[in-house]
Amino acid sequence: MFKKSKKLMLVASLFLVFALIFTAAAQAEVKNVILLIGDGLGIGQIDMTRYLAGDKDHELELMKLPETGIMMTSSTEGVTDSAAAGTAMATGHKVYNGAIAMNKNGAELDSVLDFAQVRNKATGVISTNTVTDATPAAFIASVEDRGMGGEIAKQAINNGVDVMLGGGREDFMEEEAGENLIAKAKENGYQYVSDKTQLEKVIAMDGKLLGLFNDSYMNYVNDRDDVGSNEPSMEAMTKKALEVLSEDEDGFFLMAEGARIDHASHAADIPGVVAETLDFDASVRAAMDFAEENGDTLVIVTADHETLGFSVSEPINKEALMNIDVSPEYMAAQMTAKENGNGFTVESVKSVFEEYANISLSDTEVASFNEKVVDEEGNLKYTYLVGWEIGSVIAQEYQAGVLSSRIRANSSTGGHTLNSVPVFAYGEGAEAFNGMMQNTEFSDLLFDSMRP
Question: Where are the domains of the chain?
Answer without folding.
Answer: 1-30, 31-310+419-449, 318-400
